[in-house]
Write a structure and sequence with these properties.
The chain is elongated and about 90 Å long. It is 40% helix and 22% strand. The protein starts with a helix and ends with a strand. With 306 residues, it is α/β, with parallel strands linked by helices. The longest helix has 26 residues. Helix 2 packs across helix 3. It folds into three domains: 82 residues, Winged helix-like DNA-binding domain superfamily/Winged helix DNA-binding domain (Arc Repressor Mutant, subunit A, Orthogonal Bundle), CATH 1.10.10.10; 87 residues, D-Maltodextrin-Binding Protein, domain 2 (3-Layer(aba) Sandwich); 89 residues, Periplasmic binding protein-like II (D-Maltodextrin-Binding Protein, domain 2, 3-Layer(aba) Sandwich). A six-stranded mixed beta sheet has the order 4-3-5-12-6-13, covered by helices on one side. Strands 9-8-10-7-11 form a five-stranded mixed beta sheet. The protein contains ten helices and 13 strands.
């Protein structure tokens, strides 16, 4: 197949006109018409039904057009990739992230990124609410859990490990659980990902006495420090309180479900260099305790499950 013929055919279909396609290609209309006729003769099929007013793809022509269009897109993407090697990230980045991740890590990373690439400006929202990048025009949304929208791309950053925590005062008043079944007698503080009727302990089916549920892990941590109950909290937000003695780990040998943190963005054919560069920048700077799962520039992109 001649790539020139594929380009001519694709332009004719997209312009709905031999005349407009010829003008865009800088060719004579008669040349475009002759090349299309030669293409059909070589393939042995009719690709277009022509009238004096309209062009209409045949069924075979529709299938051929879709393949040709993909080839043209691949060529355009290759050219853009080469051109971007000579460019620096620039423009506005719109980012959303959970409050805790933003406070503990993302602020420093975005600040360093903007210092390295001064042509970047940013709008950042830290929030516990779910964000739809497509609806809200967000370039990158950091979120816990993989989204279910199949139009989005999710790049896993790391898994959040969780442990059960309580305050020394709570354990002094209510006793230290020695086995998972001892949790049945204790007060549970749950997060949205937890089953509202059971302790978040893997391999067990333990009913819980829920005294609170909340959608913010920092708030839950403070409630636990104040002595209200036991909660399964991310280790990365409890390390300092654990070091100070404000929290104690409960049943350290018990496993809790982990949850992936993803960078989520719209599925765009030509991803902006600023987005791709920031994603690699984040991966490079993930602390070891976060357990980064990807190398910078890796192909670890997951289309989110529908």
């Amino acid at each position: 197949m001649g790539l020139d013929d594929a380009l001519i055919f694709t332009r004719v279909v997209e312009c709905h006109s031999f005349t407009l396609a010829a003008e865009g290609l800088g060719m004579q209309k008669s040349t475009v018409s002759r090349r299309l006729a030669q293409l059909e003769e070589r393939l042995g099929v009719r690709l277009l039904n022509r009238t004096t007013r309209k062009l209409r793809l045949t069924e075979v022509g529709q299938a051929y057009y879709e393949r040709c269009r993909q080839i043209m897109l691949d060529f355009a993407e290759a050219e853009q990739a080469v051109m971007q090697l000579q460019q620096e990230p620039a423009g506005l980045l719109r980012i959303t992230a959970p409050i805790e991740f933003g406070q503990l890590f993302l602020g420093q990373v975005v600040g360093a990124f903007m210092a390295e690439y001064p042509q970047i400006t940013a709008e950042v929202e830290l929030s516990s609410r779910p964000v739809d990048p497509l609806e809200e025009g967000v370039d990158i949304a950091i979120m816990a859990g993989q989204p279910h929208d199949s139009t989005l791309i999710a790049r896993k950053l790391f898994d959040v490990s969780r442990c059960l925590y309580a305050s020394p005062a709570y354990l002094a008043a209510h006793g230290h659980p020695q086995t998972p079944r001892d949790l049945l007698e204790h007060r549970a503080i749950l997060l949205p990902l937890d089953n509202p009727r059971h302790w978040p302990v893997l391999g067990e089916n333990l009913s819980c006495r829920r005294v609170m549920s909340c959608n913010n892990v920092s708030f839950a941590r403070e409630v636990v420090i104040a002595g209200a109950g036991i909660a399964g909290l991310p280790q990365m937000i409890c390390a300092e309180a654990l070091r100070r003695g404000d929290l104690l780990e409960v049943l350290p040998d018990v496993s809790l479900p982990s949850n992936g943190v993803y960078a989520v963005y719209p599925s765009r054919r030509f991803q902006a260099m600023k987005v791709r560069t920031l994603l690699d920048f984040i991966i490079q700077r993930l602390p070891a305790q976060y357990g980064s799962t990807l190398e910078p520039g890796s192909a670890g992109l997951l289309r989110s499950a529908p």
